């Protein structure tokens, strides 16, 4: 999803944009290592202090908020900027490519799919290791960053036919613990303006009911005069619902 060019159709298994490089694998290894160090700090700190409830509750909070974080990030990347935007340009282009050719994510190799969130996790979590040993903080950080890192795997599973998924993954999706195929499929309809969350998807209905992203889009339009891509897609593809009041 992150490196597919938008100007060509899906290619086969040998497509170099779908295969993992050693650089991708190194970033995924470093991301997983930082997550595991946080997990170890949480467990060892909790054992030393005989304090398990707070780190476990912090971990649950991390799981719930990671879904929300992926939603806001996905919304921002889908709607604003362009291929030439600094830092995020490649991902913005790739997300648009994913809308055009959604099934290519199922042919993407593991590290190729996860290396971008793995970089973000490595860069943000390493300083926390140096600054903090609190088991509750690390309970949150370990689960939150682990879910962010693997959000692209949850995403790939949401695009994979049920018959090709391991039974455990199907059970997680059916239980609402991993974003379901049906829920994510709702995102893949023009104007691509809902169901942005892709860890558990637990926030998707709430955000849709509250029209949270619409409110943010209107606010940004009023303050900055910037129209999100979903408004443009809505104008192009017909009104799924009246969204842009301006
Ligand atoms: Zn999208
Ligand atoms: Zn998708």
Automatic annotation (TrEMBL):
GO biological process, one term: fatty acid metabolic process
Chief location: membrane
Keyword annotations from UniProtKB, A to Z: Membrane, Transmembrane, Transmembrane helix
Lipid desaturase domain sequence ranges: 63-231
Cellular localization per UniProt: Membrane
Annotated membrane topology: Multi-pass membrane protein
Keyword Transmembrane attached: yes
A cellular component annotation (GO) from this entry: membrane
Membrane-crossing segments per the record: none
Family: Belongs to the fatty acid desaturase CarF family.
Protein name: Lipid desaturase domain-containing protein
């Amino acid at each position: 999803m992150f490196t597919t060019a938008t100007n060509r159709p899906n290619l086969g298994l040998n497509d170099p944009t779908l295969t993992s490089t050693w650089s991708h694998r190194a970033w995924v290894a470093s991301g997983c290592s930082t997550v595991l160090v946080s997990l170890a700090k949480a467990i060892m700190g909790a054992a030393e202090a005989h304090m398990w409830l707070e780190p476990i509750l912090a971990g649950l909070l991390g799981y719930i908020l990671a879904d929300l974080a992926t939603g806001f990030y996905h919304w921002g990347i889908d709607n604003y900027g362009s291929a030439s935007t600094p830092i995020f340009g490649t991902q913005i282009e790739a997300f648009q490519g994913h809308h055009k050719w959604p099934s290519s994510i199922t042919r993407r190799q593991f590290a190729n799919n996860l290396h971008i969130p793995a970089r973000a996790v490595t860069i943000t979590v390493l300083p926390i290791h140096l600054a903090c040993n609190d088991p509750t903080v690390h309970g949150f950080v370990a689960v939150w960053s682990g879910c962010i890192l693997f959000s692209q795997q949850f995403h790939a599973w949401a695009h994979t036919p049920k018959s090709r998924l391991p039974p455990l993954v199907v059970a997680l999706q059916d239980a609402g613990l991993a974003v379901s195929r049906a829920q994510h499929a709702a995102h893949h309809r023009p104007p691509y303006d809902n169901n942005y969350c892709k860890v558990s998807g637990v926030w998707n209905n709430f955000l849709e009911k509250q029209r949270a992203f619409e409110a943010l889009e209107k606010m940004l339009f009023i303050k900055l005069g910037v129209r999100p891509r979903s408004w443009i897609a809505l104008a192009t593809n017909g009104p799924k619902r009246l969204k842009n009041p301006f």
